[in-house]
TrEMBL record:
Residues 639-661 are annotated as: Disordered. InterPro entries: AB_hydrolase_fold, DUF900_hydrolase, FN3_dom, FN3_sf, Ig-like_fold. Pfam families: DUF900. It comes from Pedosphaera parvula (strain Ellin514). Gene3D superfamilies: alpha/beta hydrolase, Immunoglobulins. Residues 4-95 form the Fibronectin type-III domain. PROSITE patterns: FN3. This is Fibronectin type III domain protein. Signal peptide: none annotated.
């Protein structure tokens, strides 16, 4: 089946009434094109129209209602239709899609965090609505009893939207305010990028606070809940739990109507309190979930257990709504209750019956933002409820005196955590609840509630425990142990939400030494840790008080808790290691490791790089000139002695060792950098049985080497000494070929470092993942990037008016195709300031050589940080001249090509006109050698139309007199100086008044080999044709030959035809006229051109000199040959000349 049409693009008119569909002409004998349209997402594609094979665009004037219509197309052939093209959404621009998360900042407010924002995006549209799965936010978040609907407030999320200008983001972050997002509502968001052209990107659903989080907390609602500091309540709650415990059992809740796991039960060796609660979902393991109101809800609930005379009923019982029950386990042998397991459980029959409760539903309905006062002060909680059945566990012992039973409060009795029982309030007959101290005897036949005074614990923070929810056992988990320490290392990637809990481990100074209280901590700041392990004052990432951390850059980070409320000088510090696989996506030379920076990738916006499928090798050239020159070139197998079976550079092996290696310095321009940032920190502290590896998923392949530079810099591209070391040591620096079938293990190596370089070994798309696995090969952490490796011919445009010598050039350039590589065209630019550089090649080039020069230019502009677009204009030059002998044997080759160059100018002008319409004022032209004939004539034909911003003539093989008759002459010549005076004596020069470009520059070399040879060609003009016809002649103008120029085609007296101006100007210039001046490219000061002496941007000349420095043949095309280290300054100067970069 023939391939699908390429380059499908749809542009809506500004009024939205029509759509222009365009595409690249398909190869082969196309008989027509079918255009399909889908009018609605729920409908199929139907044929819209059938157009002719010569068309490359169609205007749809009958658009459907709505904004979700799409197009696709198919080429028709005699033997059947092609494959269908990918569909194109007329209303969205896929390049505008960006990644987004919703996270919480230091005050608990929701933030929008975006990354990978395309340059042409001007704003973000944020839309929100109620969830389709439920009706909104439920309060209390967990509820004491989910069946009591009167305790639930359902806040429905209002629908709304705002447009956020990109300029309103700070480092990719936008914090919503309460006027935009009302408090305590729950939101479902959609984010859509808006382009400067008015087109939106694809709408995406951002990740919520914690879900799917990075191996941390499970899904959290996107609720706008401000930070409520419950630190005081948390400490009071752990103190209560320590004091309420019995002598042999911790406090626990057991209720006849339900079992609220959210009310955290104490353990035998510790208690805990915080803002996370334990859930026991049906058919799922227990987990910890967040409840921002829990410290206040528990604080109020526990207050119901405290003595208050006003809450004692007439029978002497506590009437606050709580009670107690005796509970025993079943003996598995007898199936009866086991008396030895008896313990007191506490509970309540109804939430509504509680005297004290933090009414969360009411609180949020009034949009309160300040925490309520604590309710468990030392005085308020002095005596804590203990059922009369519990007296045996609270320090009482029975005594018998006659028929009366009495109780005595024993001395030095401690509860399970080692806190002493100081006194008890008992009902007494008068219901006055007198206080008894140890040694006191009371009656044992009175009903009522008892209240024990347990000494207040003296707590001392002895350490901090940090744990990841869902990964590490934390206080409250059945497997947590007081001997647990913070796991290390904690590893997370940049740009993934992560949750960490912090607990102050508090010893009980006046209790048992092996019992503890864990008070959950709020977080304060996230600080960078320097290379020496010191915590700096530089903040990083986005950290909420609840431990939700969004890392924005790699490195070690200290997550610091808020100060201890009893000791403000004491804070906890949890260390996390943030990793990232970093690329220089925008190739500006800076590895921007920030989350919001331009060097991030996603599945929608992968890093695009070219395959290293060329042949950059050192070889000998120009040996016929007396001394061989040694040059690195991009070769063609089977040409000029280069073996046909040679492998491309991505498969090159060192012939001495057989190991994979890099063949040349030139080949380094096909390598880009990869940093595994933060990996060294991890490798230094991770267990020895951990595994670190690179894993690829997809069909691309990468060849990876360690970077020679310790800092992972760019000197391998620009510095010859560094590049030489990288190449010389490449066999030992080789890491491996990364494919979907073959990962690369990094752990266990020595001197690995974090810095690598790689090339594309096979085209395709892939996700590359840095994975860290534990000793059981369980996943610990990862950091991915996305890449697309392309044939470089699919990254720049190749326009041609013909490539066969002596074939008349076309007047319209078409997109070139060779072999299996389909024609490539850019989609219309989305930025009105997008620059486009077009190269016009010179003489004596085969098709593959034209592309190699273009690809060298593309790569070297790329490494200068050029962000625009690039193309080559190919014309049918002669070729095959390899040495002096071939030049003599094909003497007319050059002048035939010059004639073709003049006649190719119309096609170039038409292409420049098209480009200037698409890139108005941003088309930049560079022409090399004879290509300046094509370029100069195209700009002359343009007249007063500025089709080019700036034109750079590179070693221009065109007469300097054509631009400036005042430049030096080298000969008197036998023909009139038509270049200086076109076409009569005293007339202006040929290119006089040319204004097709805004400015011009002359990149010249006065010792240029080829331009010196050009003088020889000029000397022998006119081309008499001594041994062949036609021959070109000049004689003094007269009746026989009015212009003086004529062409003979036989030996007869009348076997000639006269040549006239301007009809035959191209023939006269190519075959007849001698230039009195030197080439423009060998002239230092031609009027109208900004001069650039190439010797000032080239390195010192180490090539064989023929007539002075830079006179070797190599230098005529040096900018395309050799390597980037030598030619870096050239391309930098070119972009400065274009004013596309600032002078350095």
């Amino acid at each position: 089946m023939p391939p699908a049409p390429q380059g499908l693009n749809v542009v809506l008119s500004t009024n939205g009434n029509s759509a222009t569909i365009s595409w690249v002409m398909s190869p082969g004998n196309v008989t027509g094109y079918l255009i399909y349209r889908q009018d609605h997402p729920w409908s199929g594609f139907e044929v819209l129209t059938n157009v002719s094979p010569n068309q490359t665009s169609f205007v749809d004037l009958n658009l459907p209602d709505g904004s979700e219509f799409k197009y696709l197309m198919q080429a028709q052939y005699g033997g059947g239709n092609s494959a269908l093209s990918p569909d194109y959404d007329a209303n969205t621009q896929s390049d505008y899609t960006t990644d987004a998360w919703i996270v919480r900042e230091a005050q608990g407010r929701p933030c929008l965090v975006v990354s990978n924002i395309p340059r042409n995006v001007s704003a973000l549209r944020v839309q929100w609505s109620s969830s389709p799965l439920d009706s909104g936010m439920v309060y209390p978040i967990f509820g004491y009893d989910i069946n009591e609907e009167d305790l639930q407030t359902i806040n429905s999320s209002p629908e709304g939207s705002i447009v956020i200008p990109i300029t309103s983001l700070t480092n990719g972050v936008y914090t919503f305010n309460a006027s935009e997002l009302p408090l305590y509502e729950k939101y479902d968001f959609q984010i859509q990028a808006l382009g400067t052209d008015g087109k939106p990107g694809r709408a995406i659903n951002p990740y919520p606070y914690g879900g799917p989080s990075y191996r941390g907390e499970p899904y959290i609602e996107n609720a706008n809940i401000p930070f409520l500091n419950g630190s005081t309540q948390i400490v009071e709650n752990v103190k209560f739990l320590l004091r309420v415990a019995q002598t042999n059992n911790p406090f626990f809740i057991w209720n006849i109507s339900h079992w609220p796991d959210n009310l955290n039960p104490g353990q035998r060796d510790y208690v805990f309190a915080g803002f996370h609660y334990r859930q026991s979902p049906l058919f799922a393991p227990p987990s910890m979930s967040i409840n921002e109101f829990q410290p206040f809800e528990e604080n109020a609930f526990y207050r119901n257990f405290c003595f208050d005379i006003n809450l004692i009923d007439n029978l002497g019982f506590l009437s606050s709504g709580v009670g107690s029950y005796v509970q025993s386990d079943i003996d598995p042998l007898t199936s009866f209750l086991d008396p030895s397991t008896e313990r007191i459980g506490y509970g309540f029959s109804s939430v509504l019956s509680l005297t004290y409760r933090f009414n969360t539903a009411q609180y949020v309905s009034h949009t309160n933002t300040s925490p309520t006062a604590s309710l468990l002060s030392d005085s308020a909680s002095q005596w804590i409820y203990s059922d009369d059945d519990a007296i045996g566990w609270n320090g009482f012992a029975g005594t018998i005196s006659g028929t009366n039973t009495a109780l005595i409060l024993q001395s030095n009795v401690r509860n399970i955590y080692g806190l002493k029982i100081l006194s008890v309030k008992w009902p007494s007959r008068q219901r006055t609840f007198p206080t008894i101290t140890p040694g006191t005897v009371i009656e044992d036949n009175l009903n009522g509630s008892y209240f024990a005074e347990i000494e207040q614990p003296t707590l001392q923070t002895v350490g901090y425990f940090f744990g990841r929810l869902g990964i590490d056992p934390v206080p409250g988990d059945p497997t947590f142990n007081v001997t647990n320490s913070t796991p290390s290392p904690i590893i997370i990637p940049v740009g993934k939400p992560f949750s960490l809990t912090a607990w102050a481990k508090k010893a009980i100074s006046n209790g048992y030494t092996n019992k503890f209280a864990y008070a959950e901590q709020y977080f304060d700041k996230a600080y960078k840790i320097d290379a020496n392990g010191n915590v700096t004052t530089n903040e990083t990432g986005i950290l909420s008080p609840y431990g939700e951390f969004f890392p924005t850059e790699p490195g070690k980070v200290a997550l610091v808790t808020m100060p201890d409320i009893d000791n403000t000088n004491q804070c906890g510090t949890g260390v996390v290691n943030v990793i990232k696989l970093q690329l220089d996506v925008n190739h500006d030379g800076v590895m921007d490791q920030s989350f919001a920076g331009p060097d991030n990738t996603s599945a929608d916006r992968p890093f695009r790089f070219w395959a290293n499928n060329d042949y950059d090798r050192l070889h000998d050239v120009d040996c016929s000139f007396g001394s061989c020159d040694h040059v690195e070139d991009d070769l063609d197998p089977g040409t000029d002695g280069f073996p046909l079976n040679s492998l491309p550079d991505s498969q090159f092996t060192d012939p001495r060792t057989g190991r994979p290696a890099i063949p040349s310095l030139r080949d380094l321009e096909d390598y880009t950098r990869l940093w595994a940032s933060g990996l060294s920190n991890v490798m230094a502290i991770m267990p020895t049985n951990y595994t670190v590896k690179l894993v690829l998923t997809g069909d691309a392949q990468l060849r990876i080497f360690r970077a020679y530079e310790n800092d992972g810099g760019t000197n391998y591209l620009f510095d010859a000494a560094t590049a030489s070391s990288q190449v010389a040591q490449s066999a030992s620096l080789y890491l491996g070929l990364l494919t979907s079938d073959s990962s690369i293990t990094l752990s266990g190596g020595t001197n690995l470092g974090e810095h690598f370089i790689f090339c594309g070994a096979q085209t395709g798309s892939a996700e590359v993942d840095l994975q860290i696995l534990d000793g059981n090969q369980n996943f610990v952490a990862d950091a991915p990037f996305y890449i697309e490796i392309k044939d470089i011919k699919q990254m720049y445009e190749r326009w041609t008016v013909g490539d066969e010598p002596l074939v008349k050039p076309a007047i319209t350039a078409t997109s070139a195709k060779e072999g299996v590589v389909l024609p490539f065209q850019y989609l219309p630019p989305t930025d009105n300031n997008t620059p486009y550089i077009l190269l016009v090649h010179g003489w004596n080039m085969k098709k593959w050589e034209k592309d190699r020069f273009a690809e060298a230019a593309f790569k070297r502009l790329y490494w200068q940080g050029y962000q625009g677009r690039f193309g080559i204009f190919r014309w049918p030059t002669g070729n095959g001249i390899t040495d002096t002998l071939s030049a003599v044997l094909h003497a007319r080759n050059y002048d035939n090509s010059e004639f073709t160059a003049w006649t190719s100018a119309t096609g170039l002008l038409n292409k420049l006109t098209e480009l200037n319409m698409e890139y108005p004022g941003n088309v930049y032209l560079m022409a090399h050698s004879m290509g300046n004939v094509v370029a100069g004539e195209a700009l002359r034909l343009a007249g007063t139309n500025h089709v080019v911003n700036t034109y750079v003539a590179m070693q221009a093989a065109v007469s300097a007199h054509a631009y400036d008759p005042g430049t030096p002459t080298w000969t008197s010549g036998s023909t009139p100086d038509i270049y200086a005076n076109y076409w009569t004596n005293g007339a202006p020069c040929y290119f006089n008044g040319v204004s097709g470009t805004g400015s011009r520059a002359d990149f010249y070399n006065t010792n240029d080999f080829a331009l010196n040879a050009w003088l020889t060609d000029q000397y022998w003009k006119p081309d008499h044709g001594i041994s062949s016809y036609p021959g070109y002649w000049y004689s003094t103008p007269g009746t026989t030959h009015p212009s003086g120029f004529y062409k003979i085609f036989g030996s007869g007296a009348n076997d000639f035809s006269n040549l006239y101006f301007p009809t035959d100007s191209y023939v006269i210039l190519a075959y007849c006229v001698q230039s009195r001046s030197y080439c423009l490219g060998a002239t230092a000061s031609a009027s109208g051109f900004t001069p650039q002496d190439l010797s000032s941007v080239w390195p010192g000349d180490t090539h064989p000199e023929l007539h002075g420095p830079y006179s070797a043949h190599f230098w005529h095309s040096a900018e395309f040959r050799a390597n980037n280290m030598e030619q870096n300054a050239y391309w930098n100067q070119l972009l400065q000349t274009y004013k596309l970069i600032n002078p350095q």
